[in-house]
Amino acid sequence: AEVVIVPDAAHAGVLVADEIMHLITRRPDAVLGVATGSTPLPVYEALRERVRDLDVSRLRAFALDEYVGIDPDHPESYRNVIRREVVEPLGFDPARVRVPSGALDGIETAGDAYEAAIAAAGGIDLQILGIGTDGHIGFNEPGSSFASRTRVKTLTQQTREDNARFFDSIDDVPEHCITQGLGTILAARHLVLLAIGEGKAEAVAGAVEGPVTASVPGSAIQLHPHVTVVVDEAAASALR
Ligand code: F6R
């Protein structure tokens, strides 16, 4: 992987937004893989100014994951987060932006349907990734198969604790999610993994230079030929 160390989150946002601009000026119908969580927010913010004078109506986007069983109208459902942070501020066509369905009704087929939609779009050109403190990418928790495709997973206690900040209490954090698999993520043409802060240092080191192991799902990126890792000094601090 190419590792780029930036001074702070804002610089990370600008760098990745410029990379996305490069892609969408070349391919106005590009397919973006978008992540939720806190880390990519500066990317979307930087992108906002950059796409102002651009026709983004043909862009497509696929989110990484969703909580299973969450009320779709809950402000922290990823469907709503993507609408609030990506679709509305950037002016994307909501019909061309998809989030896996976490509805209990139909959950058995939701993964395959999502995979089919990604395939029909021609695959993902650029996938934005964060990383969990437990090493997850998407919601592929430790032990996930490198060949996995979009499916239902159980969130680890660590992830539920990390994400409790978005909810009233940890008990409100759903226990299950539907997430693109590691195989799905590895099929994207360019992976851009962002991590900011000391809390991510160990996960970043494991992903970038640790052994390739299902215990650190982020280490799957080492199997991909085109990866950019954007980190601040703190998140880079455990790299050798
Ligand atoms: C989000 C996702 C997760 C997050 C990760 C880091 O769609 O799939 O892998 O990227 O949990 O979250 P933050 O950025 O909030 O630290």
TrEMBL record:
Modulation of this protein's activity: Allosterically activated by N-acetylglucosamine 6-phosphate (GlcNAc6P).
Glucosamine/galactosamine-6-phosphate isomerase domain boundaries: 11-222
InterPro entries: Glc/Gal-6P_isomerase, Glucosamine6P_isomerase, Glucosamine6P_isomerase_CS, NagB/RpiA_transferase-like
E.C. number: 3.5.99.6
GO molecular function: glucosamine-6-phosphate deaminase activity; identical protein binding
Alphabetical GO biological process terms: carbohydrate metabolic process; glucosamine catabolic process; N-acetylglucosamine catabolic process; N-acetylneuraminate catabolic process
Pathway assignment: Amino-sugar metabolism; N-acetylneuraminate degradation; D-fructose 6-phosphate from N-acetylneuraminate: step 5/5
Enzyme active site: D65, D134, H136, E141
Coiled coil: none
Keyword line: Allosteric enzyme, Carbohydrate metabolism, Hydrolase
Protein name from the UniProt record: Glucosamine-6-phosphate deaminase
Residues with site note (Part of the allosteric site): S144, R151, K153, T154
Top EC class for this record: hydrolase
Stated role: Catalyzes the reversible isomerization-deamination of glucosamine 6-phosphate (GlcN6P) to form fructose 6-phosphate (Fru6P) and ammonium ion.
One Pfam family in the UniProt entry: Glucosamine_iso
HAMAP family: GlcN6P_deamin
Gene3D superfamilies, A to Z: 3.40.50.1360
Organism: Microbacterium endophyticum
Family: Belongs to the glucosamine/galactosamine-6-phosphate isomerase family. NagB subfamily.
Gene Ontology CC entries for this record: cytoplasm
